[in-house]
What we know:
This protein is an alpha+beta fold and 205 residues long. The chain has one domain. 36% of the residues lie in helices and 10% in strands. It has 7 helices and 4 strands. The chain has helices at residues 2-12, 14-27, 67-70, 73-80, 88-93, 141-154, 157-173, and strands at residues 33-39, 45-51, 98-100, 126-128. The strands form 2 sheets. The protein has a two-stranded antiparallel sheet. Strands 3-4 form a two-stranded parallel ribbon. Strand 1 and strand 2 form a beta hairpin. The relative contact order is 0.18.
Amino acid sequence: MDVAGAVTGLVLFAPVMTAAAAAIAATMGRPIFWRHVRPGLRAEPFAMYKFRTMRPAARGEVWFRTDADRLTRVGRVLRKASVDELPGLWNVLKGEMSLVGPRPLLMEYLPRYTPEQSRRHEVKPGITGWAQVNGRQSIPFSKRLALDVWYVDNWSVALDVKIIAMTIKQAVFGSGVLSGQDVDEVDDLGLAPRTLETAPANGDA
């Protein structure tokens, strides 16, 4: 199901992805794609791909706390329509992600999860997930993680189909996307450290 969906998506959205890549190249230059290591199945690290939506962090800027300042006009459009997520289909094709599953967060969060919250890594991470169609960025981390664990315990093909249908509806109407959100607005668990040792080479988040 994942492989068929990824192949179909890459073919169907090829024109959209080409247009997005051209817009990024024209307004931000290279690189076109954003690459960052995230925890996958059993918290094993993998490189996740998205379209770049931000300028690199300047000296003194903490890359994951300055989204609002660094998000570009083109990036805002890509995020609102969830087009920035489409390169993740390549991760699905490689077997690192599923179409549906808990969204992969930062590696730095792993030591801060409770054993119950860590159960979100019992399945592959997804391009979309139960938390994404039930509040997405408007809900705090505690609820997101609880929804992720609920998905792990209640997984079914029918549930995945429902989530995909809800995701398409959200993408069409651009609901649930808060561009340039400050992590402190939703981090009610204290997962995000004040700084990180390293940042993505292209500064995206």
